[in-house]
Design a protein that fits this description.
194 residues; alpha+beta; Biosynthetic Threonine Deaminase, domain 3; globular
């Protein structure tokens, strides 16, 4: 079976001492956020804020990034490398776990407590996460949503200087599982284990 080609667009602009990264593609599929977060984590970028939007098959995401290394820059060469890595992951030529192993990156654990995961219904079904931020945390959270096959329509990601993160993810309201209290409880328990 031949992998499907996947074309995305990445662009960045300097913003104070950080960078705004814009991601766009016309082909939504399960696990896009999981793969984007993995590429950013593997390339030593911290996601300070993010705004995730899906409309039909169109994805338009914005990320406010800071480098984990002093003087780190989002040059055109770095953007092109990250785009190529992302497209490899999106085309299923390489699993995220294999990719992170090659990049020698371990995912974090121990960020959310029982009070840090809350199911929300407004403006649609979703989940709010509050906890201690760590590099790679969004990769792990997005992996949980990918494994249970939840389509994220919108997300607001916010990290504070205090080290606390507040993330809200809204799911497709057509997914009947989001109205099933047992499914919602299982999802909350999975996220509390992170």
């Amino acid at each position: 079976m031949q992998a499907t080609s996947y074309r995305s667009h990445l662009r960045a602009e300097a913003y104070q001492d950080r960078f705004l990264l814009y991601f766009e593609t016309e082909r939504d599929r399960p696990g896009v956020l999981f793969r984007i977060a993995a590429v950013l984590f593997a390339n030593d970028w911290n996601i300070e804020q993010a705004s995730i939007h899906t409309s039909g098959s169109l994805i338009r995401d914005e990320f406010l990034l800071s480098g984990q290394r002093s003087g780190q820059s989002l040059s055109q060469l770095v953007l092109e490398q990250m785009r190529a890595e992302l497209e490899t992951l999106l085309s299923d030529d390489l699993s995220v776990i294999d990719y992170l192993t090659i990049k020698n990156r371990d995912l974090p654990t121990g960020s959310f407590t029982s009070g840090g995961v809350e199911w929300v219904q407004v403006p649609g079904p979703g989940i709010a996460l509050t906890g201690r931020d760590k590099p790679g945390l969004l990769t792990v959270v997005a992996a949980v949503f990918h494994v249970v096959d939840l389509n994220i329509l919108e997300a607001k990601i916010s990290s504070r200087e205090s080290g606390e993160v507040r993330n809200i993810f809204y799911f497709d309201p057509a997914d009947v599982r989001t109205r099933d209290s047992n499914f919602c409880l299982r999802l909350v328990h999975l996220l509390q284990r992170i």
